[in-house]
Structures are given as structure tokens and as C-alpha cells.
Design brief:
CATH architecture of one domain: 3-Layer(aba) Sandwich
Largest sheet: 11 strands, mixed
Order of helices and strands: EHEHHHEHHHEHEHEHEEHEHEHEHEEHH
Number of strands: 13
CATH superfamily of one domain: Periplasmic binding protein-like II
CATH topology of one domain: D-Maltodextrin-Binding Protein, domain 2
Shape: elongated
Distance between the termini: 22 Å
């Protein structure tokens, strides 16, 4: 499997704006906009192939034609149609000349006549080259989501490497294009509008309890097909030593408490159990460390975070020796790839990913990738 890794600088909304295409003028310098890819720029301009545009701008782009930076200025090729336009002009020019020199005109006409015929040839040529670069499937993930996805992570992150490998197992030789959106909002927009076939990583709420879910989670259940889990997030919870909820084992034991979670972390699992309850409070901070600091200050009763966040938060806040676990909020939350159910190619890809993941678990490849990614090696 060959990977085309493209990092799109997706603005939350500008990535889908229709004005981007009209901003480009053939034969003039073009400034890369948010959401652009080199192939899209070449296609819009009709100015040669993806490869030709890259070769012309290699000094600006660098070694990887799929990593382009917003604000860089590209030199544009004139479109084939523009180059071909002057060719018909010489054809009428020789035709008035037959009158002054009737005997020599046949040779001039013979020379001019074939000229327009080779001119269209360059247009089919890019078409014959481009299919070799066209991806079989379009994946999208988002940046800043270690260890699962990120532009600077080995292999694009744990989720990226697992799913790209799984798809290659099911479809050997397939070309997979992985776009790394700049944030989760841009990821949501691009996937929702079917700019991509498969998105990851996504949580999967309990779709059997719709009445407890947020609008976003209900839409996720209704509109998307889910792959089998490819990894699980371990959730942990802590309270101060001696707290009334220390050792609490059920949701009823902690209903009515003040539960803290980082702002960017999901809450659907709490919603499903109707926590923290009408007499309780969900406190959301910028980081896990701030949650632990709030716990130490008596501002919250429980901190509920991922195991990875817990390690960092406990260390940075300095409360590691003052807390105890709350089993009621210890759980695993599975991660999945998703595809819009109205996208047949995406739904087919989900089935292929499931086959590939099953094969990787059977032969140990899944374990090897996960171990290496989590160890940072």
C-alpha cells in the first residue's frame, strides 16, 4: 500500500468555502489558501498535471508534494487550453496567402493542417498520468490528538498507522490518502459534508439510549457507520482520601456530586448514566491538571479523566498521595473509524477495515503497532 499523506490547513469553515476556487488565476502566481491541496490547485487551473506543478515549485514546496503551507506562493503553468488557443490562429493566416502564391500554398497548408492535431495531445497525457496518483480511498483525522493522530507523530499516530495498515491488508496495493485536519471541528465539517470517505478516531456512544445523548451524539448514531473498535481509552476517576465517594462502585453512589472533566473530553458516558444528576454539577476545565487542582481546593468532588491524562495531571498538580480511586467511573471507551452512511465507498471501506483489523489481531501486527506507538519509539 502506498500512502499519500496530506496535511490540509483546514479552517473550521473556510475549508469548504466556494470562493477558494475562484481566487486562482491561470498563468499567474497563486497563494495557497486554507484547505488547498496541490492536486486540487492543478485541477482547478487546468494547468498541467499534479507532477508538473510540483516540479515547477519544488523549491517552494520541498521534498513532499503533499505537504503544502498556507501562504506559500506557487508559480502556475498556463492551462493546456490556453496554450492551444494561439495554434488555430495561424491556420486562418495562411489561407489568405494562397491568392498571391497559388502554387506554393498546398505545401503551406499541408504543414499547417497537422499542427492543430498534435496540440490536443497534451490534454490526454495528464489524464493518463493522474490515475496513478489518484487515491483509492480518502481518510481524514485531525492534528494534536496524541497518541492517536497528529502531523508530528510517527506514522501519523496510533490510529492512523493501525487503520492504514488494516486497509492495506484488505486491499493490497491500495492508495490511501490521509488528510490531517488542523482540529476536530474541521474534521467534523469535512467528514459531515463527505469531502472524505472515512474519518477517525471517533468514539461510539451507546446508541440504544438516545434519550440521554446530546444532539451531536444522536447525529453520530443516526448518520454514520462504525468500524469495529481499534483501540480503547481507559477512563479513571479520583477523589480525595476520606471523601464520602471514595471507593464508590455505582452511578447512584456518586449522583449529585461535582464531577470535573477537561473541556475537550467527551461526556456522553456521563449523560448515559444521568450523571452528575440534577443536584450535581459538571465542572469543565482547560486541562486535567486544573481538575486535580480544583479537587485539592475542594471545588469539585471527583476528577474523571483518561488514564493518560491522570498520570500527567496527578504529577503536575502534586496531589498524587492525597487521592483515591472512584471505581464507579472507571471504564473503557472504544475508538472507531466512521463513514457517512450515504457514502457507499466509505461504508465499503469500513467493512475492509474490519477485515484488516481482525487479521492484524490474529497475527500480532495490531499488538506490535500499539506497543510501539504507546512507547513512543
Amino acid at each position: 500500500m502506498r500512502r499519500i499523506s496530506s496535511i490540509a490547513a483546514l479552517g473550521a469553515l473556510s475549508v469548504l468555502s466556494p470562493h477558494v476556487a475562484s481566487a486562482q488565476t491561470a498563468c499567474e502566481a497563486y497563494t495557497i489558501q486554507s484547505g488547498d491541496t496541490l492536486r486540487a490547485i492543478a485541477n482547478r487551473a487546468g494547468a498541467g498535471s499534479f507532477r508538473e506543478l510540483y516540479e515547477l515549485n519544488r523549491a517552494v514546496i520541498g521534498d513532499n508534494p503533499n505537504l503544502i503551507e498556507v501562504g506559500d506562493v506557487l508559480e502556475m503553468l498556463c492551462p493546456t487550453s490556453a496554450a492551444a488557443t494561439p495554434a488555430p490562429a495561424p491556420a486562418p493566416a495562411p489561407q489568405p496567402e494562397p491568392e498571391p502564391e497559388p502554387e506554393e500554398e498546398p505545401e503551406a497548408v499541408v504543414v499547417v493542417a497537422p499542427t492543430p492535431e498534435p496540440e490536443p495531445e497534451p490534454e490526454p497525457e495528464p489524464a493518463s498520468i493522474e490515475p496513478t496518483d489518484e487515491p483509492d480511498i480518502l481518510f481524514v483525522t485531525y492534528d494534536g490528538n496524541a497518541p492517536y493522530s497528529g502531523a508530528n507523530l510517527p506514522g501519523g499516530g496510533l490510529a492512523t498507522e493501525l487503520l492504514e495498515t488494516a486497509y492495506g491488508r484488505a486491499q493490497p496495493g491500495a492508495v490511501v490518502d490521509v488528510t490531517i485536519a488542523q482540529d476536530q471541528l474541521a474534521w467534523n465539517i469535512g467528514l459531515g459534508r463527505e469531502l472524505y470517505d472515512v474519518g477517525f478516531p471517533s468514539i461510539r456512544p451507546n446508541c440504544n439510549v438516545i434519550d440521554t445523548l446530546s444532539i451531536e451524539m444522536i447525529e453520530l448514531c443516526a448518520k454514520f457507520a462504525f468500524s469495529e473498535p481499534f483501540h480503547e481509552i481507559a477512563m479513571e476517576a479520583y477523589t480525595l482520601n476520606g471523601s464520602p465517594v471514595a471507593g464508590a462502585a455505582t452511578a447512584d453512589d456518586i449522583r449529585g456530586t461535582r464531577i470535573c472533566r477537561p473541556r475537550d473530553l467527551f461526556t456522553f458516558d456521563l449523560d448515559a448514566e444521568r450523571l452528575p444528576g440534577s443536584s450535581g454539577q459538571l465542572v469543565q476545565t482547560a486541562t486535567a491538571t486544573e481538575c486535580f487542582e480544583a479537587l485539592a481546593a475542594g471545588e469539585v468532588d471527583i476528577v474523571s479523566v483518561t488514564a493518560v491524562q491522570a498520570r500527567g495531571g496527578l504529577s503536575e498538580s502534586g496531589v498524587a498521595g492525597r487521592v483515591t480511586e472512584v471505581p464507579a467511573l472507571e471504564r473503557g471507551v472504544t475508538l472507531h473509524a466512521v463513514a457517512n452512511q450515504s457514502n457507499p465507498r466509505g461504508v465499503t471501506a469500513i467493512s475492509r477495515l474490519n477485515r484488516g483489523l481482525a487479521e492484524m489481531r490474529a497475527d500480532g501486527a495490531w499488538f506490535r503497532i500499539v506497543s510501539r506507538q504507546l512507547s513512543g519509539s
